[in-house]
Design goal:
- The chain is mostly helical and about 230 residues long.
- A three-stranded antiparallel beta sheet has the order 1-2-3, with no helix packed on it.
- α5 packs antiparallel against α9.
- The longest helix is centred in the C-terminal third of the chain and has 22 residues.
- It is globular.
């Protein structure tokens, strides 16, 4: 008979993996250590996951699903941001794993449902289409992520914790309000490239320039700069 899926066991394996990685880095994340921490056997872990990278991928996907479930019913951008910060603080180990090498494959080409939901909220406030607001969404995400990591790793307790949490939400609102109010938006640096795409699974690509040649994280070679 084929092996029956055991969601609780798989959940324990992923939770054990996130704890081990948080405490000791990727070197601590061996299949044997994961099995011991999850209260199962090493062969049982191998039945479900090929290797450490497969476990980390499963953990990223599960965390994205859980985060999106938390934010799905939010009615505004600020409420969604509030839910995002709360999730990060309540699931700190899994949250840290979620954004390791987030802009590289395979993470780059996995669905980013929460990023898209937040960007959709932003689009509802500002108009246009979601891709027009990717740069602004990236800046808001950077603000939220930076706050989350400071709270997670900084040993922050009340009342400073509460002040930092709400200062982040206030900053998000101020940035969006100012963007909506200003018709001529000044920005530093070059225009956002049309072929720099985030949050769209297989369509996503991150470009970089190396030795005068433009390449993308999809592995495709681009034309040389003249």
């Amino acid at each position: 008979m084929p092996r029956q899926a055991d969601p609780q066991l798989e959940k324990r394996i992923l939770e054990a993996a996130s704890r081990l990685r948080a405490r000791g880095g990727e070197k601590a994340l061996t299949m044997r250590a994961v099995a011991k921490a999850a209260g199962t056997t090493t062969p049982t872990v191998y039945e479900r996951y090929r290797d450490r990278d497969d476990i980390l991928r499963a953990l990223r996907i599960q965390t994205r699903i859980e985060l999106f479930a938390t934010l799905r019913d939010s009615r505004s951008l600020v409420k969604a941001c509030e839910g995002y910060l709360e999730f990060a603080l309540d699931h700190r180990h899994a949250y840290e794993v979620l954004y390791d090498n987030f802009a590289e494959p395979p993470s780059l080409h996995e669905p980013w449902p929460s990023f898209n939901l937040l960007r959709q909220h932003l689009t509802q406030r500002l108009g246009g289409n979601p891709r027009q607001h990717t740069r602004l969404m990236l800046s808001l995400w950077s603000l939220m992520h930076g706050t989350a990591m400071l709270l997670i790793r900084g040993g922050v307790v009340d009342p400073l914790r509460t002040q930092m949490f709400h200062a982040c939400l206030d900053a998000v609102e101020v940035i969006v309000e100012e963007t909506a109010r200003s018709k001529s938006r000044s920005r530093s640096g070059p225009k956002w490239p049309a072929n720099l795409i985030l949050g769209e699974a297989e369509e996503s690509k991150v470009i970089h320039v190396e030795h005068g040649e433009e390449k993308s994280r999809t592995g495709a070679r681009r034309k040389k700069h003249k």
